[in-house]
Amino acid sequence: MGDNNPVESWVYDNLPIELKRVTDLFVGREKDIVLYSSLGVLSGCLPNISAIYDNKKVYSNLYIVIVAPPASGKGSMKFSRYIAEKIDNKLHNITIEKNAGLEKNKAKGKVVEKFPQLMKFSPGNISSSEFYTHLKNNESGLIIFESEIDTVNNVMKNEWGNYSDLLRKAFHHETLSISRKNEGVFLKIENPKLSVVLSGTLDQLYNLVGSVQNGLFSRLGIYYFDEAQEFKNVFASNEIDFSNEFRSLGEEVYNTYKILKDLQNEIQFDFTQNQKAEFISQMSLYSRNINETFGDEVNSVFNRHALTAFRMAMVLTAFRNRESLVNSTN
What pLDDT is recorded for position 102? Predict the structure, then answer.
């Protein structure tokens, strides 16, 4: 696995203005880390936007993994979580309020069923059974956001916590089902929507996927570099609390999410004919180059990475045009 080159400046110059504003707070590899992790979070905040790709309906959800040595700036990823913080808080508050009302009815002797837990961020260290339940209860999608891949690795070691197959299927929105014999419960989840944002070291990544032959590996959009960060001037921007800048972006994201979630009909994303031609041309070129270097056994990896690139285009386009999306629904 070779180092990814830093993201070129023209990419940042063409970002949606709010996303450019937060990435401009950083330099070097930290800037790239914030961009990729922010795209991962945003990909889980765009309900009811879909597209047709290879004759199948897809949503914007990305699996992003930042892989680098210790002390390399991976910690900057944590700011991206604030982008969906308000959505997560609102969903938790709805759950609390609904269950408080149910408790009043229960006190009156009425039979009540607990309101399901709503959330945007699902913890990575949960059982596979809990994971299915969370996906069932949150149809607009979940985000796994963990700053240490080992948080997921540790639970994956257990039979009750190995949800690798769930991750592989959810990437393509395949129908999921689970039967709990002891509880008499059967869950079926159609079109699961899951975004993943992780960071860790190369060893942690190997522990997660095992090998490049593992189907999970081909579903991960991996940003990797092998260079430690020099000690930076920690007082350079002492007057700015970066978390507030990301929370401000989160307000915009929440307002868009709230309107999109209530749509009766999905909005379909599509390339223009010229963009389709350019996409096919570029991906065909990359595919030939990769096949010449690694052989055709990597075709499945490349094909899924092409889907990841398409989904990134969905995220950027939707966020760039969110005002017109919102206005068109009014």
Answer: 75
